[in-house]
Amino acid sequence: MARFRIVTPAAASFTVAGSDYTLEMEALAGLDAEIVEAPAEPAAFIAAAREADAIYAKGMIFTAEIIAALEKCKVISLGSVGVDSVDVAAATARGIPVTNVPDTFIEEVADHAMMLLLATFRRCIEQDRMVREHRWKEGRPALLKIPRLMGQTLGLISFGRTARAVARRARPFGLQVIAYDPFLDETQMIEQGVMPATLEEVMRRSDFVSMHAPARPECTHMLTERHFRMMKPTAIFINTGRGPTVDEAALIRALQEGWIAYAGLDVLEQEPPSHNNPLLSMDNVILSAHTASASARFDEARKRRVGQELALVAQGKWPMSCVNPAVLQNTLLRRWQPIGMGRGPNS
């Protein structure tokens, strides 16, 4: 048995078929570490992972019950931005750092958000359908009802890395950008040409609202009927963040009753959606299958990053991207960067 034993569920998660752990093991080479698969069923996984040094979290929900059973675990590492599959509060209570990959897919998600913004605004799917259905002459009259993009307002909910990348893309199109994020110093927005605003101001003033709030318990149904009723009837709602941050029933009603004009959604409350979800049959909605982060580099980049985090902990060092950094001071891990890295707990 290796000195540093990493246990992971034997189930694929955001990965390609037939892949192994070669990429994760690159950073772990020479550290007497191994990645061992265990059944993706709670009781069987607990039995296999009880004395694991680390957990590579994928393919299942890591509940408080599972985390409580981990006797030697030094880190729980995720290969995703979202950490909603792990009970972070339970891990924090046990003093276990939880890591994610927050800066690996930023550009892809920002591209996707802008794609949805432009496709909904210029009614891309409708225009395509008109051509295919031999309704050529209907295309121009439909767009004569749409104002020009330049000068309109994009409102961002949360101003993390992805939202900032969206703001950078939006400005060359002539969009004015405002943002709501109660956890950030306003100067961080102003320095990037983004005006700080309250959540109510974002909903009322924006021609486009782009949702970037994380899937944390406090953000569940952050946007409700009350918020959608504040929006302009011509406004467009974009979500490339997490589905549960939005009361989907309220969004559906907003689209059906004309409180807002359009939506571009990469994420839904239930994924995949049920066959009778009204969003699937709406002409004023463009959907994608939670694919905003996908690109040719997706699998390689996130797997290598997971391996790097695990390798740092295997060497007794702080990981780079810890979502519960308060626990680090009380572990046997040591801070190793001589200067702030500008991200994560070491900044």
Key features?
single chain; 347 residues; alpha/beta; Rossmann fold; 2 domains; seven-stranded parallel beta sheet; five-stranded parallel beta sheet; 13 helices; elongated; disordered C terminus
Describe this structure in words.
Mean pLDDT is 93; it is low at 343-347. Helix 5 crosses helix 8 (161-170). The chain is elongated. Strands 8-7-6-9-10-11-12 form a seven-stranded parallel beta sheet, with helices on both faces. It has helices at 22-28, 42-49, 64-68, 88-93, 106-121, 124-132, 139-143, 161-170, 186-190, 199-205, 225-230, 248-257, 298-314, and strands at 4-9, 33-38, 54-57, 75-78, 98-99, 153-157, 176-180, 195-196, 208-211, 236-239, 262-265, 285-287. It has 13 helices and twelve strands. The protein folds into two domains: 4-104 and 296-346, Rossmann fold; 106-287, NAD(P)-binding Rossmann-like Domain (Rossmann fold, 3-Layer(aba) Sandwich). The longest helix is centred in the last third of the chain and has 17 residues, at 298-314. It is 32% helix and 14% strand. The chain is of the alpha/beta class and 347 residues long.
